[in-house]
Amino acid sequence: MAYAARVAELSPTSIGFLIRDARKQRGLSQQELADELGTSADVVDDLEAGNRALSVELVNRVAEALEQPLTTGGALHLRIRGETHLSGSIDVRSSKNAAVALLCASLLNRGRTVLKGIAQIEEVNRILEVLTSIGVRATWSPDRTELELDRPARLDLASMDVVAARRTRSIIMFLGPLLHDEMAFELPYAGGCNLGTRTVTPHLHALRQFGLDIVATEGSYHATVTPIDPQSSRSITLTERGDTVTENVLMAAARHPGETVIRNASSNYMVQDVCFFLQQLGVQIDGIGSTTLRVRGLPVIDTDVSFAPSEDPIEAMSLLTAAIVTGSELTVRRCPIEFLEIELALLGEMGQAYDLTPEYPAENGRTRLVDITIHPSELHANADKIHPMPFPGLNIDNLPFFAVIAAVAQGRTMIHDWVYENRAIHLVELTKLGANVQLLDPHRIIVTGPTRWRGQEIISPPALRPAVCLLLAALAARGTSVLRDVYVINRGYEDLPNRLNALGAQIEVFRD
Length: 512
Fold this sequence. Notes:
Elements: H1 2-8, H2 12-25, H3 30-37, H4 41-49, H5 56-66, E1 76-81, E2 89-91, H6 96-105, E3 112-116, H7 122-133, E4 137-140, E5 146-150, H8 162-166, H9 175-178, E6 184-188, H10 201-207, E7 212-217, E8 220-225, E9 234-237, H11 243-254, E10 259-263, H12 269-280, E11 284-286, E12 292-296, E13 305-307, H13 313-325, E14 330-336, H14 341-349, E15 353-356, E16 360-361, E17 368-375, H15 399-407, E18 411-416, H16 423-427, E19 436-441, E20 444-449, E21 457-459, H17 464-476, E22 480-484, H18 487-492, H19 496-501, E23 507-511
Parallel strand pairs: 2-14, 3-13, 9-10, 21-22
Antiparallel strand pairs: 1-22, 1-23, 3-5, 4-5, 6-8, 7-8, 10-12, 11-12, 14-17, 15-17, 16-17, 18-20, 19-20
């Protein structure tokens, strides 16, 4: 049958992710699903972890219990009933961008890597599918709070899950780890959000100093590696202060025993987490948090390590925005304050009232956290344009939230996204919910507030943060809104609708 054929095309890991997501969408615990199937919670956990053989009969039983097909077909939608008032408190979860970088960095280690508390989101799922397809053993703990990774002595790159690889830009961070073990290899072109052209040239220029040469053909990067003197020193100035290019060079330097100096490096949150992880592997790194990193690597890394990435400042800003746009009093706990200070300063200038607790350490022992309580406030437009800058400036991924915030403020605000060609265009979709957004060019919008939000049916844009902005605006809109095809939100947020529902939102997940 066609259904069985579609299931046969999916790996047990992929089907496990689909089962887990479908169970969460129905609000069921593992035990409740086990009761419907007439089995134990341990069996359900094995299914979701991809650790149990799957017959078509078993998959059909699970699908019937969950009342929806376990295939990748059928778009996921959200029905949001506004005008929402949120209350209570919510914890920020760990960083999505750090999680995918750490998964790539685990390829450096011949020992056992345990990542604690990483986000179980689509972007992580895609990288895990790629890793398991090339021979990495990935095992979740029973409570799914820890992920153990064991790489084989030789990776099976010929068996790479190309479909999964093409659905994430993070695959480019395989270049740094692989160049030490493979004289020639191939990677599919990267995918992810549709935000316009994002050049990979800085990666190729920087990694060339480690002997890597890339030829781009249709659909793939073909990589060849020329061995270099392992004790030689390298001074690399990045032509772009990007997060992923800095991480890629860090991973390449981690296995190069000579000193590597990286200048114009990003010092953003996910880069710092990669540095902390590499230090636990025995790599020497000086200058963490600055734009100059000095790295002295190891020819072979073989150690058992356990690491917890820090909390996500972008999720924190999402939750703060949810409170602001709905006029709610809400406490957002475990916020990485170092990476939110500019955002909070801007909010203060706009009239937003908030309280901070004293700082306390994240589980990694290095990142500083606070709890932030947002109070209902009358906002006014910021006097200057709002634009991103490399850390410690306003984070580029937090910029879109200021479009929603500006829409509830009195006056006109210019939002200038000089990094991406298309994201400002996606934010114009806020007009469908009642906002006054004027597009000046692909990089700049003028937002005039305040807004009387109204419910509407909208197709989710193919970009993560603008899609979340529409969801947050819909929380404040009178009436019911439908946000269609929200796969992109699941790339970056774990179970966001149910977490918002726990605060008082009314969001229904459904499929046609």
